[in-house]
């Protein structure tokens, strides 16, 4: 029983650790090479990151994280 409790604690610690990393923006969720902490303004879209080519000046979408249409 004690072994099971230790395993449970280890699992909870791991989950808490992963959650902390996500909350602090240290995870690159979309795999574009940028984390939120590094300036990725949409970590769910791999075409959006600092320095990305802006697809359109008028679509109101911000690909390069410096503001829509800039
Ligand atoms: Ca990213
Ligand atoms: Ca992104
Ligand atoms: Ca922009």
Order of helices and strands: H
Low-confidence stretches: none
Instruction: Label the structural class.
Output: mainly alpha
Give the distance, in angstroms, between the N- and C-terminal Cα atoms.
Answer: 60 Å
What is the beta-strand fraction? Answer: under 5%
Task: List the total number of helices.
Answer: 1
The percent range for helix content is 25-40%
Radius of gyration: 18 Å
Q: Which sheet architecture does the biggest sheet show? A: none
Globally, the shape reads rod-shaped
Bound molecules: calcium ion
Mean pLDDT over the full residue set: 80
In words, what does this structure look like?
This protein is mainly α and 70 residues long. It is 31% helix and 0% strand. The protein has 1 helix and no strands. The protein has one helix spanning 2-23. It is rod-shaped. The structure holds calcium ion (3 copies). The site of one calcium ion has 7 residues, from loops.
């Amino acid at each position: 029983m004690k072994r099971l409790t230790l395993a449970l604690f280890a699992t909870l610690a791991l989950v808490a650790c992963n959650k902390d990393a996500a909350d602090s923006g240290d995870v690159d969720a979309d795999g574009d090479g940028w984390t939120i902490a590094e300036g990725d303004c949409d970590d769910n879209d791999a075409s959006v990151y600092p320095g990305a080519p802006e697809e359109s000046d008028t679509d109101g979408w911000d690909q390069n994280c410096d503001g829509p249409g800039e």
